[in-house]
């Protein structure tokens, strides 16, 4: 398990070591990453569809997903509320941008679910015995992590400045600590060892990573639970950000987790103004880096 965890983490760090200046190449990498995400999610669904007794396990999986989503929501928002009390942050309403089309954003948030559903249907009805699905998914994930490492390194962001952003760093660490507390509380409900519960709580909204990594280590059912937990975080964040960002900016930015530097960033910018952008990018960047590291470490303890 330790070797597998290190193999998953290595591409991210190798990618982060490579400096690129060709903008056209970076644009190509962006589209390749997007395509890889949906390919990996379809493979996750395929593995679920091939699982024996899938229909019998759906009720159990629904209960596990509900427990994860609800307890992480409560723990994260409570922790971020306390952080806001300690380090207040203010937004500028006059600086807020035009409101994005929230309907379009919610539909975009549903696309990952559709990719997984398509894979489930293929696995259940057409390819119940298709071999090497897990191996292909693992190699695709390693390529994805390498390319994401490239993107993080070449996004024009200074790692030193990101780490010196006290609000962003504090929000990220608060989300991590509160998620770990929620993971420990969930141990008896999920009926799994503590390190596996903490791995499940370490996705921070990165559903394409958590679904495959957890699924590879704990089986396709747990991979589906991890995926649904993190994709629902993203969808809930889209609803919470406009409501919370002017009264509790840390809660609005932090709950989005790793998505605060990409998918939910336009909503953060339009609702909270430019002052929220560097905080959101710093928080999302750090959580994007911590998520695979923490999942790999926790799963290696098994």
TrEMBL record:
The chain crosses the membrane at residues 6-22, 29-49, 61-84, 105-127, 139-157, 169-192, 204-228, 235-257, 277-301. Keywords: Membrane, Transmembrane, Transmembrane helix. Pfam families: Lys_export. PANTHER family: LYSINE EXPORTER LYSO (PTHR35804). This is Lysine exporter LysO family protein. It comes from Marinobacter daepoensis.
């Amino acid at each position: 398990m330790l070797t597998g965890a290190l193999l998953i983490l290595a591409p991210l760090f190798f990618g982060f070591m490579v400096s690129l200046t060709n903008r056209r190449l970076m644009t190509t990498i962006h589209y390749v990453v997007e395509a890889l995400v949906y390919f990996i999610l379809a493979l996750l669904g395929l593995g679920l569809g091939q699982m024996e007794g899938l229909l019998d396990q759906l009720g159990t999986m629904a209960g596990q997903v509900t427990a994860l989503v609800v307890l992480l929501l409560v723990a994260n928002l409570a922790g971020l509320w306390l952080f806001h009390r300690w380090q207040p942050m203010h937004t500028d309403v006059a600086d807020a941008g035009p409101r994005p089309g929230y309907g379009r954003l919610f539909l975009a948030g549903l696309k990952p679910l559709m990719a997984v559903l398509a894979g489930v249907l293929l696995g259940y009805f057409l390819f119940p015995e298709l071999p090497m699905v897990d191996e292909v998914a693992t190699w695709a994930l390693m390529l994805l992590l390498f390319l994401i490492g490239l993107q993080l390194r070449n996004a024009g962001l200074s790692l030193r400045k990101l780490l010196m952003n006290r609000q962003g760093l504090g929000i990220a660490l608060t989300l991590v600590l509160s998620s770990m507390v929620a993971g420990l509380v969930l141990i008896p409900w999920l009926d799994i060892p503590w390190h596996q519960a903490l791995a499940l709580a370490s996705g921070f909204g990165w559903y394409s990573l958590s679904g495959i990594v957890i699924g590879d280590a704990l089986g396709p059912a747990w991979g589906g639970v991890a995926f649904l937990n993190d994709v629902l975080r993203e969808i809930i964040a889209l609803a919470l950000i406009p409501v919370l960002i002017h009264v509790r900016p840390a809660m609005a930015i932090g709950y989005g987790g790793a998505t605060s530097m990409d998918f939910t960033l336009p909503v953060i910018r339009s609702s909270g103004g430019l002052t929220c952008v560097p905080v959101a990018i710093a928080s999302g960047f750090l959580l994007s880096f911590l998520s695979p590291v923490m999942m790999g470490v926790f799963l290696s303890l098994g």
